[in-house]
Amino acid sequence: MPDSSVPSLTSEKVVKALKKCGFVELRQKGSHLVLFNEVTNKRVVVPIHKGKDIKKGLLRKIIELEAQLTINEFLKLL
Q1: Which of 1, 26, 68, 69 could form a disulfide with 73 if both were Cys (CB 3.0 to 4.6 A apart)?
Q2: Domain harbouring 24, CATH code
């Protein structure tokens, strides 16, 4: 699936979607928010930069590698 299928989103939208599938805020260090899902035992790090979108490549890695969701599963949470 090409990057064009992944929108660039604000960190607020990404965090909100991840919380819908069971992630909770664990801690924040500087501009990085760490979320954790107790059911899947997965940890996700989301960069928090006000006024900036998370670029498509990084968002794809957060969704697929860290959260282990498909792009379609994630998009349904938005």
Answers
A1: 69
A2: 3.30.920.30
Distance CA 69, CA 42 (A): 11
Bridge partner list, 33: 28, 46
pTM: 0.91
How many domains in the chain?
1
Closest CA to 73 of 16, 18, 34, 12: 18
Q: pLDDT tens for residues 34-61?
A: 999 999 999 999 999 999 999 999 999 9
Cβ-based neighbour number of residue 59 at 10 Å: 21
Domain assignment of residue 12, given as a range = 3-77
